[in-house]
Amino acid sequence: MNYYNIQEFGAKGDGKTDDHAAIQAAIDACHEAGGGRVLIPAGKTFLSGPFKLKSNIEFYVQSGATLLANPDETIYTESAFRENKGEGTIWIGGENLEMVTISGGGIIDGNGTAFMGEELEDAYELKPFHIFDPRPHILTIVGGDNIRIRNVSFKNAAYWALHLIGCNDVAISDITILNSLKVRNSDGIDLDHSRNVRINNCYIESGDDCICFKNRREYAEFGPCEDITVTGCTLVSTSCAIKIGSENMDRISHITFINCIIKNSNRGIGIQHRDEGIVSDIVFSNMIIECRLFSDTWWGKAEPIYVTAYPRSSEDHKDAGWRLPEHENKGRVGYVKNITFSNIRCKSENGVFVGGECPEKVFAIRFNDVDLEINKSTAYEGGVYDCRPCTGGGMIKGRTSGFYFSNASKIFVSNCYVNWGTEKPDYFGNALEADNVKGLTIENFEGEAAFPEKEDAIKIYDSEWVIQKMSEK
């Protein structure tokens, strides 16, 4: 293998000098020679502005080395979303790449808090900007094929950490992402119009979504996001640990999550569908989910499992227009179908929520062996489900049920259990509640209301074709 040590191309590694020119020169030389390893050597901190990866290279950040984003906002000039300039910039980028590996055991640090405003109680203020948001995403690859990211740590993203757009044949394994839990928009991994992806054995902490699947309008030509497996990951999020959406103008489908742990998160699994695309054929199994409430700064209300399809609010985006279909001024939503949750243990301050614009938009949702323990554990206000960003507001106030289904069809609940903890505010309600559900099957369900002397375990109204084979505790 050919080796290209960035110090041989002039990198100082003193943590003060911007070494981006030396890094880019090493990458270019490696690429032009037909491939090899670009080495970020151990024992030093290399400050760097933006640079581009190229095909047929291994970008090797050696154990003991740190690559640190330059905090000078003025040097970040390339938008992460093409003509949409309001959602961050590119630090480490690359387009139409083949055979690229990022590895080595070292640290790639986005220097995120340097781009933030004042530190508040549970979040950093976002600095105001006009049109162009300079906050850099750590890694943005557009149109990649055969991408490997392994055995490396990413830290302190100012915006998203890893954004893979239109990529095929991607393997992400044994990486750590440690973003500040107070930095908004600091996602971990965002797969955007990507396919044939494997994510394995990763640990991710993020202020925003840990793992998220999207189909953004800015990259519509790349098609659906599909054929993805996620295995053996541990996730912590101040927002949503696993999110499908909200941006989805195409199709997100054929995805499995297996053997994952979610802890200390605002929302566990969130299918947050708000656009005209579709979400289908997704399986979540063998998982432990622990959630809690946070302030309204963060989207989510401690729902361990959340499946929704509501039209996007047009008011929130009337100025930019990037969230709505071209030449349209009103949001519309496609359907969510064939979603399975199996062998999942949940502890939270809230219950499972399934809801749609109408019953036809959310259907064939299966819960098999899903146990819930609901207990009040923070001082934040409960009794609400968070449906932002949707038409008509976003916050749905009401009783906290173990399972709450509203405007859905073909819901199957089998071998599930609801248990209430010792801290029970008066808004805790039924073990299962269903409103306007067209086809609900309940089999071997165990649990009671939070206050069984006042309410029944199951409350069903305005629903059709209900089949119950239930044993109450």
Share of residues in strands: over 45%
Helix-strand category: mainly beta
**CATH architectural arrangement:** 3 Solenoid
Quote the average pLDDT: 95
Characterise this structure.
With 473 residues, the chain is mainly beta. The protein has one domain (138-469): Pectate Lyase C-like (3 Solenoid), CATH 2.160.20. Helices cover 3% and strands 50% of the residues. The strands form two sheets. It has a 36-stranded mixed β-sheet that branches. β8 and β9 (84-95) form a beta hairpin. The radius of gyration is 23 Å and the shape is elongated. The N and C termini lie far apart (65 Å).
Brief sketch in words of this structure:
By secondary structure, the chain is mostly beta strands. Helix content is 3%, strand content 50%. Belongs to the glycosyl hydrolase 28 family.
Which helices and strands occur, and which strands form pairs?
Layout: E1 3-5, E2 14-18, H1 20-32, E3 36-40, E4 45-48, E5 51-52, E6 57-61, E7 66-69, E8 79-81, E9 84-95, E10 98-103, E11 107-109, E12 136-142, E13 145-150, E14 153-155, E15 162-165, E16 168-173, E17 176-178, E18 189-192, E19 195-200, E20 203-206, E21 211-215, E22 225-231, E23 234-237, E24 240-248, E25 251-265, E26 267-273, E27 278-291, E28 305-309, E29 336-348, E30 352-356, E31 362-374, E32 384-386, E33 395-397, E34 403-414, E35 417-420, E36 432-443, E37 458-461, E38 464-469
Parallel strand pairs: 1-3, 2-4, 3-6, 4-7, 5-9, 6-10, 7-11, 9-12, 10-13, 11-14, 12-15, 13-16, 14-17, 15-18, 16-19, 17-20, 18-21, 19-22, 20-23, 21-24, 22-25, 23-25, 24-26, 25-27, 26-28, 27-29, 28-30, 29-31, 30-34, 31-34, 31-35, 34-36, 36-37, 36-38
Antiparallel strand pairs: 8-9, 32-33
Family: Belongs to the glycosyl hydrolase 28 family.
InterPro entries: GH28_Enzymes (IPR051801), Glyco_hydro_28 (IPR000743), PbH1 (IPR006626), Pectin_lyas_fold (IPR012334), Pectin_lyase_fold/virulence (IPR011050)
GO molecular function, one term: hydrolase activity
